[in-house]
Amino acid sequence: MHTFSIALPFFSHFLLWSLLSVGGAIGLLPDMHHYLVVEQHWITHSQFTSALALGQASPGPNMILFAALLGWQILGLPGALLASIGLILPSSLITVAYFRYSRIHSERHWVRAMHDGMAPITVGLLLSSGWLLARQEAANWQRVALILLSVILVLRTRLNPLWILLAGAVLGMLGLI
Which whole-number Å values give the CA distances from 41 to 18, 34, 57, 80, in the listed order? Predict the structure, then answer.
């Protein structure tokens, strides 16, 4: 893989994803997966999900760590830097500009509409990310059952989701799932 021939399209996609990261970059998983794994074949599905798991398990800015891991797997250190900067820079600049403007012009109709419109977009993006991750496990009935049980426990009880994650980790370590 020639580093320079893929660096620009790689970086430009992370810049674009940054602009689309409404409600957080986790909602971008389906498009990231499609581009990096399915379309470009730069990494495998297993590498993608492993990077996601490691990024999410690490303390700190999870999605930036995830992006850096993807970049590292594809282009080494330059890829980690390009992915991180690409995912941070545009959305950060727009967010700062928007909140400065909206604080001064909070009475404007479009400012209120932006606030009201972001929640459904964020929920839709998060659901699509969850679907992408869950559908990969559809062939394993035990994992499907565990996913459904986890969703039911989160929705129907006041059980802290960390306990559910811990139970899943223990079952995985024991080789039961």
Answer: 21, 9, 25, 18
Token reading at 171: 């079952």
Contact (Cβ atoms closer than 8 angstroms) between residue 132 and residue 49: no
Residue 76: the pLDDT is 94
Domain residue spans in the chain?
3-111
Residue 120 identity: P
How far lies 167's CA from each of 136, 156, 176, in Å? 20, 17, 11
Taking 70 as the threshold, does the pLDDT of residue 73 lie above it?
yes
- For the segment 122-170, what is each residue's pLDDT rounded down to a tens digit? 778 778 777 777 777 777 788 788 888 888 998 899 988 888 888 888 8
